[in-house]
Amino acid sequence: MQKKRIGLAVIIIAALGLAVAGYLHWKHGQLYPSTDNAYVAGDVTAVASRVPGVLVEVGFQDNEPVIAGQVLAQLDPRDFDTAIATAEADLAKAIAALAADSAQIAGARAQLVVARSEAVLARADRDRYATLQERGSAPERQSEQATTAAEVAEARATAAEKALLAARARLAVDEKAVAKSRAQLAEAQLRREYCTITAPTAGIVADKSAQPGQVVGAGQPLCRIAPLSGEHLWIDANFKETQLARIEVGQPVTVEVDAVAGHEFKGTVAGFAAGTGAAFALLPPENASGNWVKIVQRLPVRIALAPDDPLLARLRLGLSAQVTVDTQAPGSR
């Protein structure tokens, strides 16, 4: 009988211990929500050619570190050099036409001065002969000739004015032609610079698809570069919706990554996604049906990592992570 009582007491104590442990585990989960549905994410920059051409040189390999501005590849520049030479010739032609217009304007201006002077003299002669003819001191024919000469001089002056206006109009057109030629030359030179493809940022090369001799189009990706440092790395942790009640922006986070065993990364809650993965799926689930079953959804929560951690360089995109949030610390929704 005594043994039965002892056994029953042990069972009761064990049950109470399990209950207490279960409660503590549940309470810990409420205060420190955790998930292993988390992955390392980061910025990825695609490197592409901005102009079409043939790759004559490729100076990078997969998994190779590069620095910003490092030359990665070179396109055949001969077509672009020809375009620059053509643009330079067009610009020289336009500048020559502009110089000719300036000379024509100077000549037209001089002719206008002469024509106006001749018109003034012709009008004076006309008026003088008209006065003499009225007095009977000059034949009528001379007065008529003076009048005709004045009209001709006026017409020449008008023509000279129109010629000057036409020369100025040609100058304006040719000035625009020069500006257009300069722009075309600048564009040709810029496209020539695009033959040298450089790294837009420092990082690790991935997904290389460029080979010497390959014909590439404008915008065709040649590789990708992952910075893998500082603010360029973060954790996307997919928490259950039942865990989100106490999680707030700014709360401290601890992150464990399987590939960096024994090290604990520090971070903070940076923000919440606008919706669950199902909300942005190509074919979202149809829940308005009679056989609907509630499924706990997960919401991506972004975790910003401390940028001064010396082991950040060992992280790689897509690595699995264990994320724990300290909800007792203050935050801001």
Write the layout of secondary structure elements.
Elements: H1 2-31, E1 34-42, E2 45-48, E3 53-58, E4 65-66, E5 71-75, H2 78-135, H3 140-193, E6 196-198, E7 203-206, E8 215-216, E9 221-226, E10 233-240, E11 252-257, E12 264-272, E13 298-305, E14 320-325
Antiparallel strand pairs: 1-10, 1-14, 2-9, 3-5, 3-8, 4-7, 5-6, 7-9, 10-13, 11-12, 11-14, 12-13
Helix pairs in contact: 2-3
What overall geometry do the principal axes of the alpha carbons give?
elongated
* Broad structural category: alpha+beta
Order of helices and strands: HEEEEEHHEEEEEEEEE
Please count the helical segments: 3
Low-confidence parts: none
How many E-type strands? 14
How much helical structure, as a percent, in the residues? 40-55%
Strand order of the largest sheet: 1-10-13-12-11-14
- Main beta-sheet annotation: 6 strands, antiparallel, barrel
Mean pLDDT across the residues is 83
Rg: 43 Å
Ends apart, CA distance between termini: 60 Å
How large a portion of the residues is in β-strands, by DSSP E? Answer: 15-25%
